[in-house]
């Protein structure tokens, strides 16, 4: 992930391809994810115990990160932690790694209670959102997030949990999903609380047609289908659509699936509603995917924002007059949220902001006009929520 910039899940697919046991793969994922949460703190420990600083991409540094994070954050006995990395160093600096690890363990090395955000991210978020939000983001990074599930309106998911919204339950972090009651029967699906908000802003389906753009893996598609919409779900990735199809089959919900590029495809007819959850930097899901904190650079954010503007402009032409358009990104960067919708609305006399009114959402959701900005701190006492930006628009009738 660090060397090639791959998302952690994609890197894991390559690195763990020879692991046949699910628990081995799960532990490999836990080691890598926790190392990424604590990367700066781990490197500070390593640097404190070496006479000459190891290069950032040195094999010895990677091996020490893997060993230290197990011993200091994952409750692995030190002798087992070092045993997992020494085979990675055959023909390499085994003595150096063993010596540095042993010195740190004998010296009572510990990790700070709260991890530090990568310096570039810390500066950016403090500039954009203030010190309190950046401090809260670091606090939420320290622990794996809880498990949120969604289920159709008026149904019983069959399990107990904390409900923060209708059709939502929150379960403890690291809850194993496949063995939970109701999963195999399709009574519910995994979906962060914040990720469920965009579809909620379209209201009940009542047979209306809706385009779910960039739809996979399908949480919003299942929301819309269960709310009574006639859903067409579009995604550029056939493999991700295959996963969406499996989720629909499991939950006994239906949608028309289309594999296509939003910038090259057009629907046969205009629709009543559109949900564009656009591809983005995904910095808002840093709690679950800490790799985004190390992969995403300002240039990538700017390029993604331009792509989002193009997608939003193109999708806007597919909506019937009087219809509703919801735009969302799981990003904590204003370039991908506020700035995109401001650029969209200013030259569009055929669109207006569709304000979110009292009663649509609980007062705990931070609403401003037609927008929601979910920052670290919202539901922080209950375990937090993903960072999101959401905006709702209405297409005006032709005579306005």
What keyword list fits this structure?
about 400 residues, N-utilizing Substance Protein B Homolog, Chain A, Rossmann fold, three-stranded antiparallel beta sheet, 14 helices, globular, single chain
- Apparent shape: globular
CATH class of the largest domain: Alpha Beta
Provide the β-strand percentage band. Answer: 15-25%
Largest sheet: 9 strands, mixed
Short description:
The protein has 400 residues and is of the alpha/beta class. Helix content is 37%, strand content 15%.
What does this structure look like?
The chain has 400 residues and is α/β, with parallel strands linked by helices. The protein folds into two domains: 8-106, NusB-like (N-utilizing Substance Protein B Homolog, Chain A, Orthogonal Bundle), CATH 1.10.940; 147-395, Vaccinia Virus protein VP39 (Rossmann fold, 3-Layer(aba) Sandwich). 37% of the residues lie in helices and 15% in strands. The chain has helices at residues 8-15, 22-37, 39-48, 59-73, 78-85, 94-106, 119-129, 131-141, 197-200, 219-226, 238-251, 292-295, 298-316, 338-345; strands spanning 147-150, 168-171, 189-190, 209-213, 230-235, 256-259, 271-277, 319-329, 351-353, 367-368, 371-374, 388-395. The strands form two sheets. Strands 4, 5, 6, 7, 8, 9, 10, 11 and 12 form a nine-stranded mixed β-sheet that branches. A three-stranded antiparallel β-sheet has the order 2-1-3, with helices on one face. α3 packs across α4, α4 packs parallel to α6 and α7 (119-129) packs across α8 (131-141). It is globular. The relative contact order is 0.10. The mean pLDDT is 93.
